[in-house]
Amino acid sequence: MELVYLGIVIFLFALSTFDLFVGVSNDAVNFLGSAIGSKVARFKTILIIAAVGIFVGATTSDGMMDIARHGIFHPEFFTFEELMCVFLAVVASDVILLDIFNTLGMPTSTTVSMVFELLGGSTALALVKMLHDSSLTYAGLINTDKAFTVILAIFLSVAIAFVFGMLVQWISRLIFTFHYTKHLKYTIGLFGGLSITSIAYFLLVKGFGSASFMTSDIKVWIADNTHAILISFIIGFTVLMQVLHWCKVNVFKIIVLFGTFSLAMAFAGNDLVNFIGVTLAGFSSYQDFMATPGANPATHMMGVLNEPAGTSVFFLIGAGVVMTIALMTSKKAQNVVKTSVDLSRQTAGDEMFGSSRFARRLVRSVINSNEYVVDHIPAWMRKWINSRFNQDEAIIPNGAAFDLVRASVNLVLAGLLIVVGTSLKLPLSTTYVAFMVGMGSSLADRAWGRESAVFRVTGVISVIGGWFMTAGAAFFLCFIVTLFVHFGGVVAMVLLIVVVVFMLIQNNRSYKKKMAAVQRDEIFTELAQTNDKDEAWVLLNRHISAYQSKMVKYISEAYMQTTSGLIAEDVKVLRRTLNHLEDERKNWKVIRRKELVGLRKIDPLQAVEKDTWFHLACNSCEQSLYCLKRMCEPSLEHVDNNFNPMPEEYVKEFMPIREGVERLMNVIAGMIETNNYDNALQVRQFGDEMKAQLSQLRKVQQDRIRKGDMDNLKIEYLYMSTLQETQEIIGHMRHWVRACRRFQQEKGIVTVL
């Protein structure tokens, strides 16, 4: 039996290693978001600074391991066998949950997941023990105070971080404006001194707070001399920052890079327990069990876990190495960071979230409230405030999402709020604070314009909803897994290990396939970043040509699949085509939204001239997709119900039309892709010929319906509908190529198709 538990301990260490990878991937947004979003330095430089912070934080930390040992439950009431079931279930559940969130690109809290997994697993066994022993109570077995504290911290950190992020950024922008280099002469020294002091104090209290060299005497001395330390820091750093500014050093870059290092270090030192705490608690339990000769795993009580954790420095160094490697190599970390950066981007960009009803109503309410407040502000004050928020003067590096002022505020305020939470004994989540400060500061910076607000709000709501789902999912998943392992014994443990390994492999395969299928819109990325109107016009042309051509090709493919499925009575092809049609229609709306952003980037007079043709092309595409949907839905219903197939006579007369449509669409796709409309007249003539053929076939079909057999009316009408929709698609194609040609042509040249 000892070998079984040894195998479990080894598996716990293996899973913890993987947990370090997925945990760092998820929490990377806490300390990377501001630096990457502002492009304060090269990406590799940012990673190196954060990696050093992580390694230092992990290797100098005690890891706060006690929470995993006795913070949630009272171990003296649980046996070795029971706690090993809980620890195995917690680590397995944690890895699966975090990997799912990383794959979705959604930041979540590793602290909340671990606490609620421990609570769920220990609750499951507590209920089992209470059923067998009526003298035991839930409050006696479980430490509920910690769980309630974490729940309170969720609400507090979300609301407080957002509000303070908005207020502090609004004040900072009033002081510095978007053209902040003009207003640094008398303010940068004090701002830099306060910022570096805040980060340094955060580093002292939170980063080194749990370090092994921070003895109780040192902590008492810091507490007794806090005011003197802060005053010294403020004076010293203010002078230093002012001198550096006179030496032409960008103080904002120092603030952002130092803040990134500090947050990374604090994350590693304080959140390490979330990744290896449970495994080390299991290892300590195993050591105590093996040190007791003849001990029975079913009766050996684990009161030893009430003793303080003494984490070996080798474990800390190993964890630091793994976390550093994870940060430097994880693609999922970049995916999670992208979510946070995109939601706080200063300009409209690739809005990855759609709109929701709640977001639309909330935005409408805020707009109405804002208009009421603005109406009661004196005109001169409104004018002055608007002059401080002139985004046309924004100094944003090429490719950055926001400027260094906002990045500095994000990092400084996140550190301050976490320190305040620590002093108030509130375990504020680093993820929640960092994310919500970023959202609040972006709102204050007027980054959420009328065109993007509803998408940004939907994204924030989705992320916050994911946070609350984490707690519930962690609790119930671990609750069920613990009961399964407890009652299933060794067989269940082995089966759980196999299932976890299989799910992790499948998740990573699915993620790689997803990433391979997702084609980065490089043209739009360049378009969103450029401020040159001529370059924007060239990029917009390229973007429209590429995606309009792609949509014509897709419509051609979907048309062929729909008609093939009807003729061959292939229900799978029809169902797959109908599902893809809906996905493609949603994707087309995203593309159209991107291109509208591009239209605002070009010369306003040119945008007005091209706007009509742009929307005509978009409308032609959308109407063609609706035609396909009106063809596919009844065809699927007809075939799925096993109604009469299309007669051979109809198939023979329809096949030339079908081939002609495919040929026409391929030619049009090529014209749009190459921007070569030399054969436009021939395409128009060919389309007119096909429309004439379809009109003739429709007349023939109408005669057949009048004379036809009542038993075949369904296929008669379906065939008539197919001919009508085909004719409609050809008409839309004609409008489409005309709109694309007029949009692409040089200004002043008039061509009629």
UniProtKB/TrEMBL annotation:
GO molecular function: phosphate transmembrane transporter activity
UniProt record, GO biological process: phosphate ion transmembrane transport
Entry GO terms, CC: membrane
Highest taxon listed in the record's lineage: Bacteria
Membrane found in the keyword field: yes
Membrane topology: Multi-pass membrane protein
Keywords per UniProt: Membrane, Phosphate transport, Transmembrane, Transmembrane helix, Transport
Subcellular localization, as worded in the UniProt entry: Membrane
InterPro entries, sorted: Phos_transporter
Transmembrane region(s): 6-24, 45-65, 77-98, 110-128, 148-172, 184-205, 225-244, 251-269, 309-328, 404-424, 455-477, 483-505
Protein family membership: Belongs to the inorganic phosphate transporter (PiT) (TC 2.A.20) family.
Protein name: Phosphate transporter
